[in-house]
Amino acid sequence: MTLPPILRRWEALLLLMLVVIAGLNIVYSPFYLGVGNIVNLFQLSIEKIIVALMMTLIIINGEIDLSVASVMGLSSCVTAYTFHAGWPMGWALTAGLASGAVAGAINGFWIAYVGLPSLAVTLAGLIGYRGVARILVEDRAYGGFPEWFNQLGQQPLLGPLTFSIIIFLAMFVFMAVVLHRSAAGRLVYVMGNNVQAARYSGVRVKRVKLLLFVASGVVAALAGLLYSARLGSVRGDMAVGFELDVITIVLLGGVSIFGGSGNLLGVGLSILVILNLRNGMGLADITGNTQTSVIGALLILSVLVPNMARGLHSKLQGRET
Amino acid sequence: MKKILLATALAGIVALLAPHHAARAEATVAPGASVDMVLLPKFLGILPFDQAHQGAEEAAKELKNGKKLQYLGPTPENSVAGQIEIVTNAATQGVGAIMISNNSGDQIVPAAKAAKAKGAKVVTWDSQIPSAEGEDVFVAQVDFSETGKVMADMALHILGADGGKFAILSASPDAANQNAWIAAMKDALKDPKYSKLELQGIVYGNDQSETSYNQALAMVDKFPGMKLIMAPTSVGIVAAAKAMQDEKLCDKIKISGLGVPSEMLAYTKNGCAPEFALWSFVDLGYLSYYTAYGLATGAFKAEAGTSFKAGRMGTYTITKDPTRKAGLRVLMGPFSLYNKDNVEAAAK
Q: Which of B43, B71, B88 to probe by mutation at the A interface, max A CB count within 10 Å?
């Protein structure tokens, strides 16, 4: 009594969840299938899912980056601050992206070259980068960005697709190729499985880790700037707490928190599951507290079910022999 | 031919203007329409917002709205993104009106504008959209400059015609609303009517019970002859009243300010805090609902000068908002004053 391999895979379960959720949404809300709603469904969480793509690589690599939401806040505050100090918007945006690269490099240095655990280093980053962001803008709200910037964040660019959605789709394809079709991607897995073995077989472990964290910083900074454009104004508390949603998406996608396993297909499906679930609950007028509980329960299940299934499976096999 | 066209056009313009003027007299809000409406607090789980919800439900019942009022809010830690999500989803559902206690500053603007573009009326209450973009009208609880006069009046009332010395226990030195109220009170004190009131100083309790309690005790020594502590914060006023009660000083030093009736009940009954003020969140919810319902059903338009009758609360007029560069306002006001005669009823 064994299931066909395809059905035992976590991705199959996610796909099933997605079908059920989408089906319920179609039945219960006449608004769900509208083009505008589908675009909004992505648009409302677009920055989180962009960051989740990069977080997938970090977690498969056996690390974690808790500072992403603070880096989002940092980049938007740096851009707002420099823009209001008189810099042209282009330079202000560059400064924002650069702040993300610097933050990522600081994380990467302590993790890769000093050997501190990423949990501790990026927790410090979570607090520290947010602190810098708040010092820059204090209690003010910075708006008044150029119209093209706001348009980029709020208006469709290609058909119904916004700039952020196009970036997400392009990044998804790019990351999938890097992770699953390139030598660099193999390194990410190998290091996540056994960093010692990787080191002994000549992998430049430190350099790869540093690059991963710099990339994570830059992607988070980009997400922060897209968020600023979408909201049209910047405050010191931009994106507070987003790191947990990002990590939730990645873990639900079947990526092991211990590193070494998981794939982008799972994360892509997890993104669709969570976004459709949130959208459906929103359209069903379910409040924030309930939404949080449901997604929490889903995450617990995602950890429990595969483990229990594995246990049950090995028991059954034990009986057969 | 041209003349006929011109005449027709003129007639059209007159026809357009006529109801416009009629609306300025006083619009009647007709009950019985079916309008989807969403009441959106800053976040869930806060008493004043639940009270506003209660008031809105009361108005919904009176107006016999065929559609159920949706009270939707984000979690406190997800307030900004959550408010934006709720406004966006409400717009997708094509609701008639959204009532927002805005916690997102101008970050709510794109979502609010999108909702307006889809035909929803956007009414803010309790906390407005600073730039007023994407907003039809703001239902303001009180005129913040009135706060100063109300506090001066309470001080005079408690201390009697002979007046006396008093001091202020505020929240933190950089709380914008409290500072505005204290400045307004200093302004009010210039009136000869209050010449017998002497402000000795301001102390800050950071809106923490423990700190406020200790500060209140310290004030007794710091300000000799002080007969009254004025606390324009719901945390400070309770802490000060408890401090005076614990030290059995209530005969000599009275407490007043802005407080929540249910928290002040005991101190008002035993005379430690004979009189305090607050606005009613129930009324604020009620008035916001009437305003939003009236706009959504087309009973009146969001224009300066429009008057409408809001059920049991009487007639209100939409005016330009003097506290912002742009935007319209319905001013609820006045403060509700609470003393031993009415605090019990209000505390329920």
A: B88
